[in-house]
Amino acid sequence: MTEEQFSDFTESWPEAYLLVTGSGRIVRGNPVARRIFAETGDKPLEGRELQAEVLDSPDHLEKFLQVCRRSRQLIPGSLTLRTSNGGEENNAPFRAEGTLLEPPSDEGDEALLLIRLRSKVEADRRFQKLNLRIADLSREVVARREAEEKMRRLADQLTEADRRKDVFLATLAHELRNPLAPLRTGVEILQMKKDDPAIIDKMAQTMERQIKQLTVLVNDLLDVSRSTQNKIEIRPESVKLEEILHNAVEMCRPLIDECGHELVESFPPPSLEVWADPFRLTQVVSNLINNAAKYTPSGGRIELRAEQQGPEALIVVQDNGSGIPPEALENIFNMFEQLPQNKDRTTAGLGVGLTLVKALVELHGGTVSASSPGEDQGSAFEVRLPLQN
Amino acid sequence: MATDSPPEDEMAPADSGKPQDCDLPLDRDLFLRTLLRHLSGTLQDVVGLEEASGFISVVGQEIGDEINRGYRHALAVDSLNREQVSEVLVDLKKRIQGDFYLISQDEEKIVLGNRACPFGDKVLGRPALCMMTSNVFGGIAAENLGYAKVTIEEAIARGDQGCRVVIYLNPTGEAKAAEGREYFKG
Question: ipTM greater than 0.90, yes or no?
């Protein structure tokens, strides 16, 4: 490479380039080099000794130049230059890369080396900026992926909620229609057998049962609707827990007897009182007992017990019925969640009972939990309530 | 080529359960060769073989200089002639468990063969280590004879049965046409 070729190639390059003899005399520099080395009219760059321009030891520079002289590889190294920046002298570390352009000639001309200089500080700064940008991009990618994952989960949840709603509507239609048939039949029979008191009486009882069932269904629906809008009000007072349990058992007795279940009761002493709305707490316990009855094959066993545990009252409803699979336990209190019912069940449901139980217990400042060893191994529901306000 | 490191499932477990009783392929030689393998691998992968050649040149020339000074001093000469350069290159490899041998030499070139690499199986897939040999050979040859161009025609590292290294001593047409690296007296 001639000096003219060097100038042509390196004139507009952003790094400093030097043409240097094998012994370290500067032959030429590009504009960036001339600026770094503070070339002036009185002190041109050409002819300077590189050793005078660096703060490194002679051994360090010679070692670098020697490796460059001996191979046409691009040799990496480092030099600390005396630089000038706006008239102020600085000591700046530079990355140096050198390569042999021309070996020494037989006529005694020295080898010619091309050296490129890049500011370490500047390079580090750019590298740091790049790293920061990469880190930002990585964070953006991660955030985007998380958002996409969240959207996907929400979509799945919405799909599942939609599916449960559809199942619920179908069940609701079925459950509401069930009492209507005997009611319609009852009305027809009453019209036909106006003069038969026995039949009138029997039909009246049947119709009354169906109307009660309809009423329970509608009331449950209304309660659940209110609970989702936080509109259920409770009127707590000091109530004897034993009375609540008795009332709940009385409400559920027809279903328990119909299913042929054994109900084992273990009630607390009459002195044990809780701070609760008596109607709503009875509703909680009766819902749990009804559930146990529905999900236990005929002739099963239901246990209802309650006791004081420290500052809380514990109510447990346990059965030896169809149990709850582990994957269903997590969602058992969700709206419209229903497990497959027993084949011999006599009473249906909308899948809102446990949702209502949870909402009412939490309104009382308590907790409810479900556990089950697994399918066909029964289940237990525990309600904990504070004893006093 | 024999493998230095047997598969892990062939290593017998220690009865005593103590580290010092474990049958492990770990000693200084194996450790250093494995270390070099990983270093050169990282250099190849991260920097790239071509860009890494400069780094390897720096190291290879330093090693070559030390070896050159050692032999000159031991042989009590200021400079090695061509025959001595050939013998030195074969001897230095032999001392580090390589198996180089002289195929031919004349005024234009020295041709060496090799049956075993000093790095053992650690050299497989590591052409960066061959570059080290090129720099050491080329540096010693150029420092003593003025010029060298080293061409590695066959290499165990590349999967060949053995190595064949040609060291051109003059920039002839044949040398210029050959693919390799040039070295000059510094």
Answer: no
